[in-house]
Design brief:
Strand order of the largest sheet: 1-2
Helix content: 55-70%
Radius of gyration: 31 Å
Distance between the termini: 32 Å
Structural class: mainly alpha
CATH superfamily of the largest domain: MetI-like
CATH topology of the largest domain: MetI-like fold
């Protein structure tokens, strides 16, 4: 496409500018994807260089270090203790002892790692054992695949933590040796404790949140990814019947088109299309209508502003579990809406509007109801931003003869888009995973029999997240396929986020509104 200079762009009409910006956005997507690929390649290149640099530094430190530094390669903290940094050395030594004890326990790290290759040898069974000279049948619990996978992953994380701590121990000895050679004294244990609330206070504050992220976010994600390579389901629950590794079989099933419309790939493609359509309308209808409501309430001369804001906030104050289920019943075939239309004589009995029965009606209805839910959030956000737009901008625009529409398009909208650009992105990705609205209103229905697979009924309003839930809870509890869908959802959301984020004006032109 032709690229306009700044002067040529200013000469374009409003429609031409919109068309140019619209085509520029989509034309820039391939380049953005290319840049993302290049960035990922450079990221792994930097990782490889960093790992090589670490090994080189380890060799050099061992070669040039004194006996205290060299001894720390085997006994963590020994060099620090020998140099008088007892507290630091004891902490390193304690961590190494805990690691060794955990790894060699009868049911410790080595045990779980040895079971990780096949996720267990035998499940619950009965064995004949000798008791008091007689052969007695005894129940044996056997292995538990779920525990083996979980504790195996925990052990791997513990090993990574140990390697990181061991490397830190070597660095500390190298730094301490250099300080002593320069004739300066080392920090004492009291100095180390004091630094935790002084120059190292940021590390103290981040320690607990970082641990929480690793334990409650990174570990479950890693575990979920590994489940995608097993046959973990209701039949193979890991306790009564062990599950095992199946390699890429689940991904082959997901991308296998031989089953036609009944394949997982067909279902994924159709559900993904609707998910993107839903996320687009759910995001931008709420955004612009919420902004419009905020502008109407903030307009000079409007009375009872607090009342109108309070009425709107009540919509989000009531739990969605209550409000959405009630609204779902209202729009049912025998619900309040259809009964009211019959009583008014607008429709006849037997001609009830198919809000939840017809696919098109259901999709439009959930989008409209989501507007009722989402406008209050955007109204509150927009209210705060609109109050911070300098009033002299509007005054200058009025002096120059700008009408309200021109003031909105030239001042209000650019300012709002610049400030709320990242919010729009997070709102879009959040709507892609908006489980509550879809599941509580329609349950994903009406059923789409043409793409229902694996015993899980796929609906015309199902999002990827509700489909994932159904795969998990219906059709044999196929956790492995749900894990595959979860990985694909992550890939789709990550790609959209990376591409759009790189194109946001808030990121590209940060200085525009400073």
């Amino acid at each position: 496409m032709n690229r306009y200079s700044d002067l040529e762009y200013l000469r374009l009409s409003r429609g031409q500018k919109f068309a140019y910006n619209f085509t520029s956005f989509f034309a820039g997507i391939p380049q953005a994807l290319k840049n993302a690929g290049i960035g990922i390649g450079r990221f792994f290149q930097r990782i490889a260089l960093a790992i090589g640099g670490e090994f080189a530094d380890l060799y050099k430190t061992f070669r040039d270090g004194d006996w205290k530094t060299k001894s720390s390669y085997l006994v963590m903290g020994l060099g620090s203790i020998a140099r008088g940094q007892v507290l630091r050395g004891l902490l390193f030594l304690l961590f190494e002892l805990v690691f060794i004890v955990y790894m060699v326990l009868p049911q410790g790290g080595i045990f779980w790692l040895s079971k990780l290759d096949n996720l267990g040898d035998s499940g619950p069974h009965k064995e004949m054992v000798m008791q008091y000279g007689q052969s007695v049948e005894t129940f044996v619990a056997g292995d538990n695949s779920f525990r083996i996978l979980l504790y195996g992953v925990l052990t791997l994380f513990f090993i990574v933590a140990f390697i990181f701590t061991w490397r830190l121990n070597i660095k500390q000895n190298k730094i301490a040796e250099g300080i002593l050679k320069s004739g300066k004294p080392l920090r004492s244990g009291k100095d180390d404790l004091r630094s935790l609330v002084d120059d190292q206070f940021h590390k103290t504050l981040l320690a607990l949140p970082l641990t929480g992220i690793l334990v409650f976010t990174v570990l479950p994600i890693f575990f979920m990814v590994l489940v995608a390579f097993t046959n973990y389901d209701a039949e193979h629950d890991g306790l009564n019947n062990l599950f095992t590794w199946v390699g890429l079989t689940n991904f082959n099933t997901m991308f296998n088109w031989t089953a036609g419309g009944k394949s997982y790939s067909a279902a994924f493609g159709e559900i993904l299309t609707w998910t993107l359509i839903w996320a687009f309308f759910a995001t931008f209808t709420n955004y612009f209508l919420g902004m419009l409501v905020a502008m109407m309430i903030n307009k000079k001369g409007i009375k009872l502003k607090k009342l109108w804001r309070t009425v709107l906030v009540l919509t989000i104050a009531i739990p969605q579990f209550i409000s959405l289920l009630y609204v779902s019943k209202m729009f049912a075939k025998n619900g309040l809406i259809n009964l009211s239309l019959i009583n008014l004589g607008w429709i006849q009995p037997g001609q009830e509007l198919p809000f939840w029965e017809d696919p098109t009606w259901a999709r439009i209805t959930v989008i409209l109801i989501n507007i009722w839910i989402g406008i209050p959030y955007l109204m509150l956000i927009a209210t705060g931003i609109l109050m911070n737009i300098p009033a002299d901008l509007y005054e200058s625009a009025r002096i120059d003869g700008a009408n309200p529409v021109q003031q909105f398009t030239k001042i209000t909208l650019p300012y709002m888009l610049f400030i709320t650009g990242p919010y729009l992105l997070t709102s879009f990705t959040g709507n892609m995973n908006n489980f509550n609205v879809i599941y509580l209103l329609t349950g994903g229905g009406p059923t789409n029999a043409s793409i229902s697979t694996g015993g899980a009924a796929v609906g015309h309003t199902d999002l990827l997240i509700t489909w994932l839930f159904k795969i998990t809870m219906e059709g044999g509890n196929k956790y492995y396929m749900a894990s595959v869908v979860g990985i694909l959802v992550f890939v789709v959301v990550a790609l959209i986020s990376l591409v759009v984020y790189s194109l946001l004006p808030s990121i590209k032109n940060e200085e525009d509104f400073q």
